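Morning!

This is the sequence you dropped in the shared folder:
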Amino acid sequence: MKAEIITIGDEILIGQVVDTNSAWISQQLNQAGIEIYQVTSVADDAVHIKDALQNAENKVGLVIITGGLGPTKDDITRKTLCEYFGTKLVFHEATLDSIKKWFEKRGMPLNKLNKNQALLPENCTVLENNEGSAPGMWFERNNTIFVSVPGVPFEMKYLVGEQVLPRLKKMGMLKNIVHKTVLTQGIPESFLAEKLAGFEEGLPEDIKLAYLPSPMAVRLRLSAYGHANENLGAIIDEQVKKLQGILGEAIYGYDDEQLPEVVGNQLAGLGKKLAVAESCTGGYISHLVTSIPGSSGYYKGGITAYANETKINLLNVKQDTLDRAGAVSKEVATEMVLGVKDALGADYAIATTGIAGPDGGTEEKPVGTVWIAVAGQEKLVATKFVFMKNRERNILRTSHTALQMLRKLIIEENK
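The structure's back. Tokens below.
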């Protein structure tokens, strides 16, 4: 089954409210084996809404509409649905009783506008809303199911999770689907696609591979579709093993794992401590590390040595090195990583120095030039990278690349 999600509201179109509803609904439907065909946002306008409904009806088997069910004049969804399905609004006594109880429970007066929320299309199936005053509505026409739910997120989630999905399951509409996300860092998307060309060609028809790139990493999502009696998890695991054989240490985790969490688990498991010296990343690596609960067990601290005098005074970087090689150099990155490791008494250390941008570059060292050094108990690795001209993206990429370098060094030292 394919589905379309239609969100209603001027506030979404002008950017006043971010549409998180469609993202949540998409996740829930996809996990239930329903393919999302399209997500559409429309204004509080009857013609616009009806056009969107008509377009969806011609293409999908399920339409979920959110928004426009409140008590105010701009909430026109109920009336518009009546026009679309050729019916009229009638008082739904059970809904009116629920609304009265909802307000009584909260010690609030019930006015005429709230009572009008019990005016519902005569030919709809009413979905009781235990989280609010606006019920959901279920229609069926021309082999398409239409469901209208409130735009208030917690009310929408209740109705979709407790009313809509169980009904679809009972009707036999849901299909089995399993996702597995493989997390990679250090190989650009185009290079990954080139390395995985043969792998993709050999995938069974019922398994799809999607590339989800970001400045930090490239996620590879494998999706298997089948029937409930199939062991889709085992089928996916077989493909993941093949990816492991092709990509090796470029894979740092799976599904919702975070790179700082993976590195933290390595350090915690070994009983080792980490220190960080940052110039171009301005403390962002330390932020990532300390965002993980329990990081105080392995993180000694960080020094944000932005100015050269700070590098000299706190990290023991030599003035001669700065004069000869410049702040953005292998030599300075090396002295920084050794300096912070020694200063904070850590087992492992990271150092970054570079030109984040958008200006400050030269022909020899353009914007985006970064040196990252990682030091362990036996080894030290310093690597040059040339990223882009966007400052924010450069900080993100440098920080995650540094953590990936450290992850690999820890693996290498503890084989």
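Headline: The mean pLDDT is 93.

More detail when I'm at my desk.
O.
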